[in-house]
């Protein structure tokens, strides 16, 4: 499979017009959450021992509806104005952990005795894959991309129902758990091992009306089929636990505990193929040309990643051009994290393009920073000899 892809890439590269071509290198990191700010993270990393006061303050910042999101890619693209090929190494992840489960992890079950803990709002999704993308433009308006995906890692964890009750005097535990966990093959240590294959399609449309630019794009309409070594785990149990009776303290060992827990936690474990969907992303943008000296463009946009974002992202910015330079500053709301400041800088001439940007520049104020987002791009344009 890889040989066919490699020789196919060589054939396509040989048919690109060198005089019209470019190389584009991009990188992007987006790691966000909606509860814990950078100041709390900084304190937690530097105080060493987490005392009761710090753990209580941290727990009080977390709501029942807490989420985190991760998306990163590093890629290289080669092409011309009508056709391009690209390789992107991508990671996409999202999740939410029940506040009661976090409290249990921080304090143990002793301090919550007499109160039932609810673990229902817990899930983690994580996928890591290589994206070989082939893009074709039709005129100046339409663009279609087809991706071949080599999938490396999958983790999908869901607590469908979970609860824990500890009797006030610690005499018994009453526990309910219903969860599923799907994991790609972990039997090898090959970081880029292929555990699944897939395909995806992206569609784009751009139009210019009275010097205003409007665009729409839907990305990652696709599936990944994971191989038959994919591990499927599930547990659906209700149990009542009064502890372990020890007849002779001198004979106590780990096997006594494991034998008891094995009878309580009868995890179903088997291997079979699994199909996962990529989170589809929809983007709508407008770049409006302004007739004033202070700013050149007003940018407006909306973006949504289905299944991952509870709220759509709305953003706006103003851009100013200085010869070969452009600076943009704006704001966004929605998605995972709270309100964010956006900023971008672009340099562009005939042969070289460079850009650096952030959709969460809040790091300048740790109390309002809920993650990190930073990206950059470098593009080299190969001109014809006549130019």
Task: Describe this protein's structure.
This protein has 387 residues and is mostly beta strands. It contains five helices and 19 strands. It has helices spanning 2-14, 38-46, 52-61, 99-107, 254-264, and strands at 22-33, 68-79, 83-96, 116-118, 122-138, 142-166, 173-183, 196-209, 212-226, 231-241, 268-271, 274-277, 281-289, 297-305, 311-322, 325-335, 340-348, 352-358, 371-381. The chain has a 14-stranded antiparallel barrel. A hairpin with a 5-residue loop joins strand 14 and strand 15 (311-322). The longest helix has 13 residues, at 2-14. The protein is globular. The two termini are 40 Å apart.
Task: Give the terminus-to-terminus CA distance.
Answer: 40 Å
Beta-strand fraction estimate = over 45%
> So how many helices?
5
Biggest sheet record:
14 strands, antiparallel, barrel
Give the helix proportion (percent range): 10-25%
Secondary-structure-based class equals: mainly beta
Q: How do the SSEs run, as a string of H and E?
A: HEHHEEHEEEEEEEHEEEEEEEEE
The averaged pLDDT comes out at 88
How many β-strands, per DSSP?
Answer: 19
Gyration radius, to the nearest Å?
A: 26 Å
In the sheet with the most strands, the strands line up as 1-2-3-5-6-8-9-13-14-15-16-17-18-19
Q: Which residue ranges are poorly predicted, with pLDDT under 50 across at least 5 consecutive positions?
A: none
Shape: globular
Q: Can you give keywords for this protein?
A:
mainly beta; 14-stranded antiparallel β-barrel; 19 strands; 5 helices; 387 residues
């Amino acid at each position: 499979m890889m040989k066919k892809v490699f020789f196919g890439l060589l054939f396509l590269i040989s048919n690109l017009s060198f005089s019209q071509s470019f190389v584009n290198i991009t990188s992007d990191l987006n790691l966000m959450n909606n509860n814990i700010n950078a100041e709390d993270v900084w304190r937690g990393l530097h105080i060493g021992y987490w005392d009761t006061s710090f753990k209580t303050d941290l727990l009080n910042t977390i709501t029942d509806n807490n989420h985190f999101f991760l998306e990163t890619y590093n890629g290289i693209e080669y092409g011309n104005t009508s056709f391009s090929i690209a390789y992107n190494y991508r990671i996409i992840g999202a999740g939410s952990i029940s506040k009661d489960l976090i409290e249990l992890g921080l304090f143990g079950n002793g301090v919550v005795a007499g109160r039932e803990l609810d673990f229902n709002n817990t899930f983690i999704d994580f996928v890591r894959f290589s994206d070989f993308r082939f893009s074709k433009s039709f005129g100046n308006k339409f663009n279609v991309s087809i991706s071949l995906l080599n999938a490396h890692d999958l983790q999908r964890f869901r607590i469908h129902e979970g609860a824990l009750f500890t009797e006030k005097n610690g005499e018994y535990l009453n526990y309910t758990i219903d969860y599923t966990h799907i994991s790609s093959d972990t039997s090898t240590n090959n970081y880029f091992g292929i555990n699944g294959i897939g395909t995806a399609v992206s569609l784009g449309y751009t139009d210019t009306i009275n010097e205003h630019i409007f665009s729409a794009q839907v990305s990652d309409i696709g599936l990944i089929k994971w191989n038959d070594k994919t591990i499927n785990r599930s547990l659906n149990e209700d149990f009542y636990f009064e502890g372990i009776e020890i007849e002779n303290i001198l004979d106590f060992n780990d096997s006594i505990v494991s034998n008891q827990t094995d009878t309580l936690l009868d995890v179903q474990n088997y291997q079979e193929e699994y199909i996962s969907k990529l989170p589809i992303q929809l983007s709508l943008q407008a770049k409006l040309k302004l007739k004033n000296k202070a700013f050149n463009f007003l940018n407006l946009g909306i973006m949504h990643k289905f299944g991952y974002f509870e709220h759509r992202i709305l953003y706006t910015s103003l851009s100013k051009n200085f010869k070969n330079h452009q600076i943009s500053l704006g704001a966004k709301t929605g998605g995972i994290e709270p309100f964010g400041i956006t900023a971008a800088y672009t340099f562009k001439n005939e042969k070289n393009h460079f850009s650096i940007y952030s959709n969460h520049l809040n790091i300048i104020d740790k109390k309002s920073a809920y993650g990190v987002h930073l990206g950059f791009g470098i593009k080299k344009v190969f001109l014809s000899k006549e130019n």
